[in-house]
Design brief:
It contains 17 helices and 14 strands. With about 475 residues, it is of the alpha+beta class. The longest helix has 18 residues.
């Protein structure tokens, strides 16, 4: 997560109606302390008041909402949803805040939290939930979400939104990963195409496939979307932690997240990233600094997420198949998780906020948003509205992985920002600089453990 100088001015944040005064900027050290990666937070987190829903809304409730996207299909869809919701009823009035586009969204959230300017309903990248919850930026929403709604959510959505036994967030869409392959190219080369997670290619098998594709004219047959893999970027963790998990490694001790030593630098992690570095050394990975390796025909296989399917299918209609990520020794594993909605600490009326959030979770509204952004619907009822996810559909693998435990969340700990940053930087060094794998991961382990020690292991609130 990139930081920003505390002396840099921001443009005023605008509301859809009216104006919200600019914030007073938090100093750089305070920003760090606000985040899970800071060094000043101590002891146990603040005790946020629950978001209580009792089914009553007194008078007309006004709520403000923040959304992460700049100009995009996501934003225009949400703007339309807000307009429709406000038109349908009069008891809750939703005001969508327009945020500065030149600021990293997480930085905006942390700075607003420091100055008490968070909205009534906030969306945020899922793995940040644990840091926000631990530090008192969010309120639990257990009493607001009915059992029927929880039952309709994909298990991964429920899992991602849970921390310390409480529900803190809920999303309207999830994510999926796989290998996109040119079907005709693989068939011509006599390469088998996996049909699901149980017959994923092994990492060794994939190495052989990449070498074979090179003989077919593909100089760098594997696209890892490395244009998005600069040090510190989330793609490195989201995209490639599954290789570590598949090899039996981890980013941090999985039980209570007490240490990274022996995990991020353990045998499985070293083995997985050594394999990937060997692909890079052999020239099997496309290293061109753009995201066109697959659509331009430079690579016949792309390791990527759900969001590229429309682009890839448009480039090669009917000639793209999505297969599982490779098995590095203990079964294929994939990433999961995307943006979620949560209620910041404050005095917002829980029932008013839930009234709007429950509207966004209606099957038609989930479908509407996922058509706009290409993401995976978060509810079983909305999935039924999307034929591409049905058995036999081109994106059914994503649903299969999310339902059947192939998908795994990034570490559910307040230390996640520090963990992700350290792993992301290590991955970049290993792939781009060909740095020694074990020594680089040893440094990542030290960095993560330093953050854990600075926060006393992030003890959960006993209350």
């Amino acid at each position: 997560m990139s930081g920003t100088s505390a002396t840099r001015a921001w443009p005023a944040i605008r509301r859809v109606r009216g104006t919200l005064a600019p914030w007073v900027l938090c100093a750089t050290l305070l920003l760090a302390a606000c985040d899970g990666g800071g060094s000043d937070a101590k002891g146990v987190s603040a005790s946020p008041k629950d978001t209580t829903c009792d089914g009553k809304i007194d008078g007309t409730a006004h709520i403000t909402v923040w959304f992460h996207a700049g100009p995009s299909g996501e934003l225009t869809t949400l703007q339309s949803q807000v307009k429709e919701f406000n038109k349908r009823q009069k008891q809750v009035r939703v005001e969508l805040v327009t945020l500065p586009e030149n600021r990293v969204y997480n930085d905006l959230v942390l700075s607003a939290a420091a100055s008490g300017d968070l909205p009534d309903l906030l969306d945020f990248d899922g793995p940040n939930l644990y840091s926000y919850a631990w530090s008192g930026k969010l309120r639990p929403i257990d009493s607001c979400v009915p059992a029927s709604v929880r039952a309709d959510l994909l298990p991964t959505i429920r899992q991602q939104g849970t921390y310390a036994g409480r529900l803190w967030g809920v999303g309207t869409f999830d994510s999926g990963m796989g290998l996109y392959v040119r079907t005709s190219v693989l068939k011509k080369a006599g390469i088998r195409i996996p049909t699901g997670p149980k017959d994923a290619w092994t990492a060794t098998e994939l190495t052989g496939i990449l070498r074979k594709l090179r003989t077919q004219g593909y100089r760098a047959p594997l696209d890892l979307r490395l244009v998005y893999a600069q040090p510190g970027q989330e793609w490195n963790t989201y995209g490639f932690a599954p290789a570590v998990w598949s090899a039996g490694g981890d980013l941090v001790e999985p039980g209570n997240h007490s240490t990274a030593d022996g995990y991020v630098n353990g045998p499985g992690s070293v083995r997985a990233l050594t394999t990937m570095q060997n692909w890079a050394k052999a020239g099997l990975i496309d290293m061109v600094k753009d995201d066109k390796a697959f659509v331009s025909g430079r690579s016949a296989i792309s390791w990527c997420g759900h969001w590229t399917y429309p682009e890839f299918n448009k480039a090669f209609p009917g000639d793209v198949t999505i297969v599982p990520l490779p098995d590095f020794g203990q079964g294929t594993v994939t990433g999961m998780g995307s943006f979620q909605w949560g209620v910041p600490a404050g005095n917002a009326d829980g029932d008013a906020v839930w009234r709007f959030l429950s509207f966004l979770l209606q099957p038609a509204q989930v479908h509407r948003m996922t058509v706009a952004n290409g993401a995976i619907p978060a509810t079983e009822s909305a999935i039924k509205l999307s034929p591409q996810y049905a058995p036999g559909g081109p994106e059914h693998l994503f649903i299969e992985q999310l339902r059947d435990g192939v998908a795994r969340p990034r570490p559910q700990t307040p230390a996640y920002p520090a963990i992700s940053d350290a792993f992301s930087r290590a991955f970049a060094k290993i792939i781009f600089d060909r740095a020694p794998v074990r020594a680089t991961l040893d440094e990542a382990a030290k960095t993560i453990d330093k953050d854990l020690a600075a926060h006393d292991g992030y003890p959960t609130n006993p209350s």
